[in-house]
Amino acid sequence: MLMSACAAAAFIVAGSAGAQTPLPSGSAEAAPVQPTATVDSTPADIVVTAQGRAQVLADVPVAISAVNAESLALSGANDIRQLNQLAPSLLVSSTGSEANGSPRIRGIGTVGDNPGLESSVVVFIDGVYRSRSGIGLNELGEIDRIEVLRGPQGTLGGRNSSAGLISIISVKPSFTFGANGEATYGNYDFVRLAGGVTGPIAGDTLAARIDGVYVERDGFYRDRNNGTRINDRDRYFLRGQLLFEPTSDISLRLIGDYTKRKEACCAAVYVDRTVNPYIGNLNEPATPLATNLAGGNNIVNVLRDLGQNLGAFNQGYSRNVSVSRGRGYDGETQDYGFSGQLDWKFGDTNLTSITAYRDYYNEQGSDTDYGTVDILYNADNGNNRRQFKTFTQEVRLNGSLFDEKLDWLIGGFYVNEKFRGKSNLRFGSQYGRFATCRIISGGGLAALYSPTSPGCVAPGVGPLTLAAAGGADVAAGFLTLDGINDRGSTIDRYNQNMESFAAFTHNIIHVTSNIDLTLGLRYTTEKKRFFATFGNDNTGCVALQQSLTDEANITAAQIAAAPGLATRRALAQALIGLGCQGNSTAELNGVSIRDRRSEDQLTGTAILSWKPIDDLLVYGSYSRGYKAGGFNFDRSALKAPLQPANGQITTSFAALGGAQALVGGLQFDPEKVNAFEIGAKYATGPFSLSIAGFRQEFSSFQLNTFDGTVFIVQNVNGCTSSLNGADRDQSTFPTAPNFNAAAAASGACPRDDVGYGVVSQGVELEATLVPARDVRVTAGFTYADTKFRNNLVGSNSGAPLNQALRKLPGDNLSNAPEAVVTASAAWTPDLGSTGWSLLFYGDTRLSGDYNTGSDLFPQKEQDGFALVNARVGVRTPNERISIELWAQNLLNKDYAQVAFNSPFQQGASTATFQDPIYPGGRQLFSQFLAEPRTYGVTLRGRF
Fold first, then answer.
1. What secondary structure letter does DSSP report for 253?
2. 839: closest CA among 30, 191, 35?
3. 613 Cβ partners below 8 Å, 6+ apart?
4. Most exposed among 21, 70, 150, 465, judged by the fewest C-beta atoms under 10 Å?
5. Coil, helix or strand for 603?
6. Residues sharing a CB contact under 8 Å with residue 402, sequence separation 6 or more, in sequence order
7. pTM score, two decimals?
């Protein structure tokens, strides 16, 4: 490993645009700073490094979108989310935390914000791997370009990815003095100040650059209960660089950067029928509140009676949010690192060494129930946090042999990553009353409902009736559950050490002057060590387990002999289930668990490309990609509160051999993909057109789903033999057509019949036209049919799919619209012969319908929509100074980024709300809204 005079990141492009000089993955030489809004370059000018070498975009036989500095400035892009407007196959969204953005390419991406799952679409900044893709949701400073590589990246340097890669390339130091500045003011009191300066320090040998950004903005959401705003901005970014070039053969680039964010994020609102008609009257109180609940939702009655404003359930896209008093979403993020890249030419051989260290830290408070009633929360005291410390080293050698018939490349990549996380998730101060009222209001005891009384039952008659129906232990259990308030995790600690090494080779064989064969192979070996220690003060759970486990195990034979025992069993199970939800139990206090896993994978690519004429490239390719397996950092996955075992329902960890005996249930397998692609690229003068047809088959697809109570992580696979609908059945709604009392155990597949479970196939087109020096038009179209197969199972061994995922078979993945169109146009006419010019710019993204929830419940559907951005301005000669008026989401389109089950807020399960329209029963739904219209003015200067 070359750790000499380097510390990782970047790239150097020497020679002409078509030269194949060594560069790290996703990097290239940044030319001296150019005016940001000229449009006189042609598509053939764009140089990318998708194959580890500097190549003209039109000559690269892979699907790649390249967005240069000019396009980024015109679109107003400050982080990777704005790329949605420019790259039709890409969708970037952020949900429960700004630290956990999720990019998707061709409909494939990592779902949820569990830090144990790695990114399907990885992010590199100046050639340096970032541990999770949400890190790209930050200010980026001055950017030379961004490359979006579509499809699995399993050969060249850096981290494996199963769906794609986003490579961000910053502007490097220049040996010519230059400076730039920018000041922006917009609605929501948006202020953004940015600047940079570059120039020589020692002649033409040593140059430096420093960039900085400061951003402040009020939040889009208003929390009237606590008198504050949420989803605000308060951040700054600094980056310093040195470029040392002692000879024409040696280049060393050093980069250090620091980011600090102190912001409140991310609030949510309830989904109502004006947003999604499938809500029906889910958000209406049950009137009357009686057995079988012919209409309405008893959980709405409970929430209303405990303090929730009824208007919040039916406010459409209003940004007035419900937050428990004293709770909030305050968070803090720090991200810093150092990198060094050495490029050294030894005759015909080129060496590249990239060394980097990154430290990423995020802590976040949350009113985790997303409502006024205090059910669930994470305190913002620094004990709900995650930290990644990552060291990476990449070394590559490349050159040519056999009279330049072979362009060879070999290399190695090493990563050592340490994760340290804490969780302080606790039941809120009203949880106990909420839980008892949820039980009482939804069944045969509804006549006893009294939300102001202990146990949520009317004084006197209530306790007596409970004792008569359920026995003394059940009656006492209601008081125990009623007292579970502000209980749960004191501090849960999750730690993981990961070490991975890869050796790879990527070779371009020039078979003839116009036919190339590219062969690449990569071997990866990886080890992960996991350990966790729990702290918990929920003694009420232990008390319920000790007193009610026998009642929870009343048998069918006993009920046949004494039918009244059915109520006793149902109440006992409900009390334990809600009192111990998510394995929040003092039984785990001080308990530690540990595990380890290792894996070895071979991935690679083969590409045959042909240039029948100079301006046309045709290619076909196969690639094998993979995303590492790992551990679910969530104690709720260890077992269910009511866990069947040996014909009995067990409630405690001790009954199952302790937590360590169950730790294997936290593991999930690596995700693998076989991808096939054919494509063509045409580029001549001012016009370029690329088209790609693709098919990607994913096995062991890693799915993370919140079912309203816990997060479910499964490896989704297909079964080649028919399951006869057993992957679509359920045991909750007896009168539904797909009811099966044994649904939890049905739907297994013979191991030899297990195959891929997800297919993404379609076509992509991208075109650019520059008909005149001051006019540029781009257009993109993606049709991606990204679906689960029929006959799904939940593991590599063929175990049944979780019932909560029964809507998946045969349907599209979440956040995967089938059709997306993007377009942009820029016109920069001169103002006579004064040297001044005008700017007119607009871009749009038209997206088809899609479902925003990973369980694909119809209540989470999002209708298709169009987003429009616009910018107009005037610039002085040579664009030394420009002033621009801009608007993002110009038409103020309201839409949801992600809809999800409102935590614990599910009413009774009766025939009125059931499959197929209401797979969640009387489950309420919340949603994270996208940003509203923003507008402002920007003043730029360059010298």
1. E
2. 35
3. none
4. 465
5. strand
6. none
7. 0.91
